[in-house]
Write a sequence for this structure.
């Protein structure tokens, strides 16, 4: 299924523009779309920024249905109201992020952008059941929410910190402001669940987390490197290069994710010590 | 590098649940590690693994795990908690 940015011609679209895009629900900053000057940037930098935004749009759009499944599972499991309530906000945040990324991608490419969500949809259907049971929710919270969103949040924050273009900076700022809450939702879920786990449950969740932890360094080992002469511009548009990406992933793993998982009794430092390592 | 805002809540990193060693650290998941690089080959003895070899092995490291949890507290000063 191919997705492009489409709104209705009803008053709902105006409401969406005004309350969702211009100013997010969490005191986001307005994106100064009109200030973007495409001609100011070299083509290689624009191409990398476009690719980053297109992939971000794909990820954010796919996350809408994925998190809706998480909300459904939490409600069916009778999870605490604060967890269910926080989770219900995530799909709306994700469609808003997708909208921001679609718009910025279109500006970088100077054309309408379409992404194909079929493959992502197929992969998530293989990995996650339509109705998530409590064990599925544990896995989901570990893989997608706690580890995934923490990494996403850290890397997007690094994109924001390098972005000096006002539009790129505002887009990333808005997204990061939400992502930090998404990541914490995963950790709070695990903190709620951890006292309920039997030894077998904890082993299952630890195996799940460990499988992911051993792959992180290599899976996130390559950023988007601009050719000479376009590196500064790429960074200004929020593009994360390999060197910075590796540094932030290592920082997040060693200082946040692995200690967090260890504290939950999931022994992630053992898995991290055995991780697949980058060759160079 | 600019100091980041902490993402993982301090409540999590100060928790100290007695834990287990994930199968991958014992060479039993995804083939990422083997007995050759220090992990036990769980495929040869999956029953003992399932019976809690990993959990027993962890007990020896329990103190280390707790220290890790406490050490991380120092880095929590930017955790603003939930909204």
């Amino acid at each position: 299924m191919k997705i492009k940015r489409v709104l209705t011609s009803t008053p709902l679209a105006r409401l969406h523009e005004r309350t969702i895009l211009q100013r997010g629900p969490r005191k986001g900053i307005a994106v100064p779309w009109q200030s973007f000057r495409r001609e100011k940037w070299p083509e290689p930098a624009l191409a990398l920024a476009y690719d980053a935004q297109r992939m971000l749009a794909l990820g954010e759009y796919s996350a809408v249905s994925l998190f809706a499944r998480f909300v459904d599972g939490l409600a069916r499991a009778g999870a605490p109201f604060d967890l269910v309530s926080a989770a219900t906000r995530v799909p709306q945040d994700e469609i808003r992020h997708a909208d921001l990324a679609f718009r910025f991608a279109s500006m970088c490419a100077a054309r309408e952008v379409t992404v194909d969500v079929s493959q992502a949809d197929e992969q998530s259907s293989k990995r996650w059941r339509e109705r998530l049971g409590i064990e599925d929710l544990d896995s989901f919270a570990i893989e997608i929410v706690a580890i995934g969103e923490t990494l996403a949040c850290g890397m997007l924050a690094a994109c924001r910190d390098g972005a000096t273009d006002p539009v790129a900076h505002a887009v990333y700022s808005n997204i990061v402001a939400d992502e930090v809450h998404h990541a914490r939702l995963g950790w709070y879920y695990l903190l709620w669940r951890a006292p309920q786990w039997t030894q077998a449950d904890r082993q299952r969740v630890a195996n799940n987390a460990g499988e992911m932890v051993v792959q992180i360094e290599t899976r996130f080992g390559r950023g988007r490197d601009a050719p000479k002469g376009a590196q500064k511009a790429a960074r200004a548009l929020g593009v994360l290069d390999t060197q910075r990406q590796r540094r932030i992933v290592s920082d997040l793993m060693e200082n946040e994710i692995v200690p967090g998982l260890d504290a939950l009794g999931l022994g992630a430092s053992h898995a991290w010590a055995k991780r697949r390592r980058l060759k160079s | 590098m600019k100091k980041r805002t902490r993402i993982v809540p301090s409540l999590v990193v100060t928790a100290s649940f007695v834990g287990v060693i994930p199968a991958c650290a014992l060479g039993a998941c995804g083939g990422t590690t083997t007995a050759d690089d220090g992990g036990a080959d769980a495929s040869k003895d999956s029953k003992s693994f399932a019976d809690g070899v990993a959990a027993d092995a962890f007990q020896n490291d329990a103190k280390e795990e707790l220290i890790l949890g406490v050490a991380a507290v120092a880095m929590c000063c930017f955790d603003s908690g939930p909204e």
Remarks:
- Chain A has a mean pLDDT of 90.
- Residues 31 and 80 of chain A are 35 Å apart (CA to CA).
- The radius of gyration of chain A is 19 Å.
